[in-house]
Amino acid sequence: TTAAAAAATTASPATASAPARKLDVRQPQGSTGAALHSTGGCMPCPWFWKAQGCLNGEECLRCHLCPEGELKARRRAKTAELRSKQRAKAEETPDQL
Asked: Distance (Å, rounded) from C-alpha 59 to C-alpha 47?
């Protein structure tokens, strides 16, 4: 019983009151951060599609309407763009030895 009491005191109130839905039944939902979703100016929520889910729910400042792989796709696109800019800059400047 002491282990159960210790577990109850360490659990945060947010996790106890907002159980996450299973991934197979989770659907995109509106959030405060989803206001710019239609223009592409939103920031995908990195926690919404994880097993524990987003604890902020509708009050989250990040977008819950973006599809599951959107954050990773945007990160890869940004990395590719930065690398291509670095390559272009390297080709413009001659090697200085």
From this structure: 13
